Amino acid sequence: MEKEPDTINRTVNCLPSMPALPHETGTQNKISEYFPALSIRISDVLDEIGAGKRTVMERRETYLLRERIMTIAAQCLELPGEFFHFGSQSEGTTTPGLNSDIDLLISHTDLNIMTDWRDWEAGMENLLMIHDDITIPQQYLLQDIHKYTPEAVTIIDNERCVRKDSGQALFSSERWKQRTEHMVSHYGEVFKNGPSVSNDPDWDLVSTLPVCKPLPEIQRWIDRCRGRHWPPAQLLKAARKAPCFLVPAGHPDSDYKREEWRLSPNLIERMLMFSFNMAQIKCYIVLKLIKKSLFRKIVGDLITSFHCKTLMFTTIERTHPSLWKEHNIMYLLLLCLQELRKWLRLGCLPHYIIAGVNLFDGKLSIVKQKLLLQYVNYLIKNGLQDLFHIDIDNLGCRLQACCIRRIKQGGEGELGGVVLRYSISLLLKVGYLQRILLNLTPIIYTIQSSNSTFQQSIYNTLLTAVQGFTNEQLKTVAFDLINHLYVVYNSVQSSKCSRLPNPAFSEIISRFQFCLNTDIASSRLKLASLLYCFGHFHAAVRVLDDVEKRYHSKVKAVCRVRRNEGESDLRVFASMITDNYENVLSEQPFAFCVRFIREEAHCAPYVLWFEMNRAMTEEEVAQRDVYDKNWMDNAEVDACPFLRYLQYLTYGGQGERTKQLYALEVLESYIADPRNAINMHHPETALNLLGHCYEMEGYYQSALYIYELSLRRYHTNNAANWHVQRVQRLISNLY
């Protein structure tokens, strides 16, 4: 705690003194002279590290779009559920150094949660919420009720239910979570954290049950808050209608912790967070930096972001609105820490909304509370000077006057200011686009597996997506999803035309103009491939020339099925930024992988048909996980290698040998350059295309070598196995 005291003292001493807060704020606290100036500096530094207003709002908007695309995709798949992003990422209350998890809540709408018997619905799986005098606040038991008569189940035939001592059939939170874990395990390694079960350690994914009826806990909170300056009356009105969620988590001290469900008013908490002004947002972010950097040394990770959020709620409620300005951040942090000190002394941090809940229970032992209390006392007494010791996002150094100029110019290996802001913006855009592509994959797979004709199935899916237009909030994401589906729809229709004389071909081609802007390359390359396969070489070349002009050196490849290590690093996005920042963002410099499903086979070069049949044996098919099964019967190829391969084919078709050989040379160079590895998600397919070019040139030994390189990347489920057999036969016939 005494690190670099001279530097810190010099920094504090050089800060200009400013007038104390006016008496009308109602504060009785003594304000350090340097607090206002340091508050301004903190606010500026937060802008510098990616917590400015523009970035905060962009994070919120992006994560709201992401949850909506997942909800529409679920509707297209006829899955009953809604998706919600909560937590720091969706609130915009994070920085790169905080490295916040992504929180996703799935609301299962196929179960009817009853608050009393009047809520029973025939034909639904009904569950009655039970809370008696001995039940711990915020915790509920769920009693199983018959589907077709409003009577309690007595004979258990549901594996997720257990029998209580009283004979009641209870819907078990533990068994619900076990079932979720079993389903998630099909997709890979399982990571558990409290009620969360996911495949990714950076994701908290919680499966919940929605409660759409009024609850007494929420009404009591609304009554308590009515007439106060915060929360505002409009928010309280919206909170009355907002669903709550039952989370599969029992209280650690309960006899029924394996059966209990925790009531969670996530949507109300999100409304409260979205009502914060920038001073409040920045104060909350600094609290989290203190928690993660300073408190962690005392009590580990036992103090959570939710504790910090609760401190913010209680402090805002009891503080005059005029105080919440950015030049008061230091003083406001002091108020929040004094609030924490008060609750540590009492040994109880009350839940802001649900009465009777102690947020220290099961988290912070009495011993740990005393340790933290000692440190919070010290922190308050020394005027929060330990802020200079926070190393996350290099905050402490940025705050020190001797370093501020160097940091603003960009320290070694650091991003800051405008570059960081635009890098985060690009990262958010990629995350949204990947979410669209990720949700599109199972939709296409389901359409392919349908008993209906492919065209009828995709038409029905398009209709379902169009229904999103009736909801203003879903309109943007519905249009984005429809764009991608429409490309497939047109391509499949064109594929049918190739087998039968069809005058509608020109009309189908013209429809592509409405869905070319999914990204800078993939839809255009699919159109060029279609034109090549139909023998329209000159038209194909024009499309390919257009793609080549758009595909500048800053373009980032985006894949729906594979991720490359380090591709989400902010420095990758910083390298995409030119001097003209706005153009980078407006042009969407992303290129998706090009996918051809089997129904589009006649629109794809023949060599890609092998990709659609990449497995040589049933054993190889059995090796595929759930994700792989959704796409490995299709052809997936990175846009840039496919561009060069198509140029090689079309120039060859036109008899332009010089241009054809140049396209081959560029393809070779692109694949060989290690700098392009981060943008190649299907390197084995790129090598297969190169090998096929060598085959067409008659260089069979070179082709065999390239195919063997491909097999070193992926030995099984790789079309190179077919190519090797073919080339070996060709070579043996030559000798």
TrEMBL record:
Q: Which InterPro entries match?
A: Mab-21_HhH/H2TH-like, MAB21L/cGLR
**Which Pfam families does the record associate with it?**
Mab-21_C
Q: Where is the Mab-21-like HhH/H2TH-like domain?
A: 282-363
Please give the name of this protein.
Answer: Mab-21-like HhH/H2TH-like domain-containing protein
- Give the species this sequence originates from: Dreissena polymorpha
The upper taxonomy is: Eukaryota, Metazoa, Spiralia, Lophotrochozoa, Mollusca
